[in-house]
Design a protein that fits this description.
By secondary structure, this protein is α+β, with helices and mostly antiparallel strands. It has helices spanning 5-8, 17-35, 51-54, 61-69, 79-92, 107-110, 154-159, 176-186, 190-199, 204-227, 242-252, 263-279, 295-306, 315-332, 337-340, 346-360, 365-377, 395-414, 424-437, 450-453; strands at 11-13, 43-50, 94-95, 103-104, 111-114, 124-131, 137-147, 150-153, 283-285. The protein folds into two domains: 17-159, 60s Ribosomal Protein L30, Chain: A, CATH 3.30.1330; 176-200 and 202-453, 2-methylcitrate dehydratase PrpD (Orthogonal Bundle). The two termini are 43 Å apart.
Length: 457
Amino acid sequence: MFLSVFDMFKVGIGPSSSHTMGPMVAAARFLDRLRASPFAPHGLRASLHGSLAFTGVGHATDRATVLGLAGFSPETYVRAEADRAMREIAETCRVHPEGLGELVFDPARDIRFDRTRALGGHANGMILMATDPQGDVIDQETYYSVGGGFVLTEAELAAGRDRDEGPAVPYPFRSAAQMLRMCRETGNTIAGLKRANELSRMSGARLTRGLEQVWEVMNECIDIGLSSGGRLPGGLDVPRRAQAIHAALAAERGMNLNAPHTVNDWIGVYAMAVNEENAAGGRVVTAPTNGAAGVIPATIRYWLDHVPGATAARVGDFLLTAAAIGGLIKHNASISGAECGCQAEVGSASAMAAAGLAAVLGGTPAQAENAAEIALEHHLGMTCDPIKGLVQVPCIERNAMGAIKAVSAASLALRGDGRHLVPLDAAIETMRQTGHDMHGHYKETSLGGLAVNVPNC
């Protein structure tokens, strides 16, 4: 199994990797399919199912689908251009994707939120259709947005979601146990194994620059969030709090007024800054998803700003270690809230961050694996119940708590020698089983939990 660090950490847009980025990517893939088709399409339609139907409006799934069919992509997304395109499409009921000419598409009529029929492959399913002048479907494809911006067709999902068709990598570990054994046998760190695998597919310069760019976008997102006020869109009227909290923390520095636990406020505010920016539709990095995008950046920023001896030169090792853990979780369980609840999103992010932090603090591979296990174990059973289908409450604060847990898990692991009772593989399998058994109301449908128990929402 090989999943690149740049598959795990993708630059995109908020508020959701599975509900916003994924549908946009699926739409782009469908346009490519039509460009290669012998049929000349006249119009387009989309049908959203499962979690995409239940929380799609709050997650901007309809907007993402429209923009994707108009030719937009998460990597090159510019908000002003997208807003202008949305206005034009609403007025003309036409899109003009490159190479396909003018196509009839009325978002109000041609996007259907089907809450009566879930598709069999995954909770996040969508069907994209091309029609002739009479409105009859001449081509269609089913896509599944499986979390973290990953998209598979129905056939690809059936063939095996993690199939890797590239050349063999030096260290093809599929479990934490295999990973640790390879570390012992070679003397490599987890980051060392992951780096060697990446270098079998790309140059060292590309890997180094790519990791630098991932951190640049993460860090920029923190800074934008810390400097932005106002209220978040969507109807809950949630205020952006990171700016005021950060200003207060900065003002208190050096005054000897703070208890030691105030450092948790710094960790939390970094995470909240990212997730407030995500909720506003800003530019973020999936880590491993948008809904959990604040945990890893907050942990890195805490380490760089508050831990003596930290250096930006080691951020790459942090990200590679985190990506190795995230790949194991995705391969053996899930990183999708619609599939396994928030344990799969914030829980996975916290495990990834804990391992990364333990590694750059000098921990052994066994200690880093222990840190990941502690963090994941103590997110088991966490539901995904966003109020009004928005990635705001409880998501923003939940990222803050996930980052704090990651730091605590790394610290606990470093107090030991790496030996522990519950292996990371067992925690991952438990998360998979728990997600399978979890009622659908608690898996990103907003049909249970806080989403139905908060008045006037």
